[in-house]
Design goal:
Number of strands of chain A: 12
Strand content of chain A: 15-25%
Helix content of chain A: 25-40%
CATH class of chain B: Alpha Beta
Oligomer: heterodimer
CATH architecture of chain B: 3-Layer(aba) Sandwich
Largest sheet of chain B: 10 strands, mixed
Low-confidence stretches of chain B: none
Order of helices and strands of chain A: HHEHEHEHEHEHEEEEHEHEEHHHH
CATH architecture of the largest domain in chain A: 3-Layer(aba) Sandwich
CATH superfamily of the largest domain in chain A: Glutaconate Coenzyme A-transferase
Shape of chain A: globular
Distance between the termini of chain A: 49 Å
Radius of gyration of chain A: 19 Å
Order of helices and strands of chain B: HEHEEEHEEEEEHEHEEEHEH
Mean pLDDT of chain B: 95
CATH class of the largest domain in chain A: Alpha Beta
Low-confidence stretches of chain A: none
Number of helices of chain A: 13
């Protein structure tokens, strides 16, 4: 389904009514979780840029050869490179797509988008947020006051200019985005999927509410008792969640707030390799770091203990005075 | 391009940008020079300057030597007043809480429109650029300062694609398009500081950077420039400004 198609309210309600929303254990393996994402789905990705990227699940989707996904995320960095280069996604819906401000343009994105074999569907950052929020609210659109007058508006005919019935002012209506599945990485959750997110939450709460299913990867699974001691830290409630996977360092080589910062040596080597040759460089990266390792922990060992320890030291220093 | 070897182009760009910010203002800053300039302003006697980041941060005080690699990294939250969702921090712009939006730019035109999406035809682009991010929202919803490198290919009569609106086609076209609030009011480069004519909304030179001639600015601009009646010469960066800046970015991530 094209990502711009707004689902009818009846369809949204029927799909949600079919889900088992009860308080039940949902822990599965990374392989099983990736199996819940099927070819052609619209996949919402949690986190932003280099932060709390559900990298282990993306890595597993590439390994399983998933195809023709349309992926949406507020801001995309090297995860988008891997989704295109790994053959998983045909389309990425976002507001910004590069490897990171430190490195300039993504040659991988440029290669695929300029050749026309992949699509980058651009919205403003606020528009992405209001699309997920409308999806999470069960309404078909929300009005915003940006994108008006710019060339982004004609680029996105899915958004409709509209005269406000109360004031007569011009507004832009952005369509709800209800992904088939959301994949979100968090610091901790229980076996039921009550997820506690430390630090920046980005658009993850709206995304979880909007999606027709949610897979959580988590640094650790804690007891329900522990969740109940700090219910104000719970950002995504269990009834949104369909699967839970415990993956320590599951956002590597990106960061996870309070635990580890981006693994910059790995990132720099990656960027140099794929930007030198977005096809062969990417293929070599995938062979070594995605297809090569027998599991996620072996991937981490390829990043290297020294870099992981340093990223963890920096990550935890957030809590130093 | 600077006439002095005391500082790099990025350094004078950052120093002049910091000077444009006042204590007490709420500034929505993009990554790179804007973040660095806003942080520099805080360190140079304007601690009441509140920095907002699109990752979802209100009131950051970035640590020297620990500049975040994007506005979505944990380093952006250090000593902040509040962390909130990305859509919610952008909605503060829409509600009108933010005094100044502060961005870099890849390509700008005579009406202050910015392009960060496409070089060439959007249907078959020569270069697909990263896109808007929060740029379109910031420039649509608040008064804006743009800090950017001054090159002929970046200063063009008309951008290939308006990602982030300035004054669109000049005169009242921005308001008529449904953008009654905000608009770019300063463009700062390593050569000069620009404002916009109150009526035509066309860019004009307000002041020249130290050691830079009017001809030099014109030669590096892709359209005929207007010079304000009382064009002044900007005071060079002080030692204090440069030393503080170098303390903030010792690895020269953004000021090389």
């Amino acid at each position: 389904m094209p990502s711009s198609d707004v689902q009818s309210y009846a369809t949204l309600r029927e799909d949600l009514a079919k889900r088992d929303r009860s308080l039940r254990e949902k822990v599965v393996s990374l392989e099983e979780a990736a199996g819940l994402v099927r070819d052609g789905m619209q996949v919402g990705i949690g986190g932003s840029t280099m932060s709390r990227t559900p990298m282990a699940l993306i890595w597993e989707l590439i390994r399983q050869g998933r195809k023709q996904l349309s992926c949406s995320r507020c801001i995309v960095s090297t995860d988008g490179d891997l989704l295109f280069g790994g053959g998983v996604a045909d389309e990425i819906v976002t507001s910004w797509f590069a490897q990171g401000i430190l490195w300039g343009l993504s040659k991988v994105m440029r290669h695929h988008v300029e050749a026309g074999d992949k699509r980058y569907q651009e919205w403003s950052h606020l528009a992405m947020g209001m699309r997920f929020r409308a999806g999470g609210m069960g309404v078909p659109f929300l009005p915003i006051r940006s994108m008006l007058g710019s060339d982004l508006m004609p680029l996105r005919p899915e958004a409709k200019e509209f005269d406000c019935p109360f004031t007569g002012e011009k507004l832009l209506l952005v369509p709800a985005l209800n992904p088939d599945v959301a994949i979100i990485h968090v610091q901790r959750c229980d076996a039921y999927g009550n997820a506690q997110i430390d630090g920046l939450q980005f658009m993850d709460i709206d995304l979880a509410l909007a999606a027709n299913s949610v897979i959580l990867t988590t640094e650790r699974i804690v007891s329900n008792d522990q969740i109940r001691r700090m219910p104000d830290h719970t950002k995504i409630p269990f009834m949104c969640v369909d699967a839970v996977v415990e993956v320590p360092y599951g956002a590597a080589p990106h960061e996870c707030y309070g635990l580890y910062e981006p693994m910059m040596k790995h990132m720099e080597a990656y960027v140099a390799q794929v930007n030198a040759d977005p096809v062969e460089g990417m293929k070599a990266y995938l062979d070594r770091f995605v297809y090569g390792p027998k599991n996620w922990t072996e991937f981490l060992s390829l990043i290297g203990m020294e870099e992981i320890v340093e990223a963890s030291r920096q990550g935890r220093s957030m809590y130093n005075d | 391009m600077t006439s002095s070897n005391r500082y790099t182009a990025s350094e004078i760009l950052t120093v002049l940008s910091a000077r444009a910010l006042e204590n007490g203002q709420l500034v929505f800053a993009g990554i790179g020079i804007p973040l660095l300039a806003a942080t520099l302003a805080q360190r140079l006697g304007r601690p009441g300057l509140t920095i907002l980041f699109e990752g979802g941060v209100i009131g950051a005080f970035v640590e020297p030597g620990k500049l975040p690699p994007s506005t979505n990294d944990q380093r952006c939250t250090k000593r902040a007043n509040m962390v909130l969702g990305s859509a919610d921090v952008l909605l503060l712009l829409q509600r009108g809480y933010v005094d100044i939006g502060f961005m870099g730019g890849a390509q700008i035109d005579q009406y202050g429109n910015l392009n960060s999406s496409f070089i060439g035809d959007p249907d078959a682009p020569k270069v697909r650029l990263p896109g808007s991010g929060g740029g379109n929202d910031i420039s649509s919803l608040t008064n804006m300062i743009v800090a950017m490198k001054h090159e002929k290919r970046r200063f063009v009569e008309q951008v290939d694609f308006i990602t982030s609106p300035g004054y669109l086609r000049g005169q009242n076209s921005r308001t008529d398009a449904g953008l009654p609030a905000g608009g770019v009011f300063r463009v700062i480069t390593e050569l000069a500081v620009f404002g916009f004519d109150a009526e035509t909304r066309r860019i004009k030179v307000l002041s020249l950077n130290p050691g830079v001639t009017a001809e030099e600015v014109q030669d590096n601009t892709g359209f005929p420039l207007t010079f304000d009646d009382g064009v002044t010469v900007t005071e060079p960066p002080t030692n204090e400004e440069l030393e503080t800046l170098r303390m903030l970015d010792p690895e020269r991530l953004f000021t090389a």
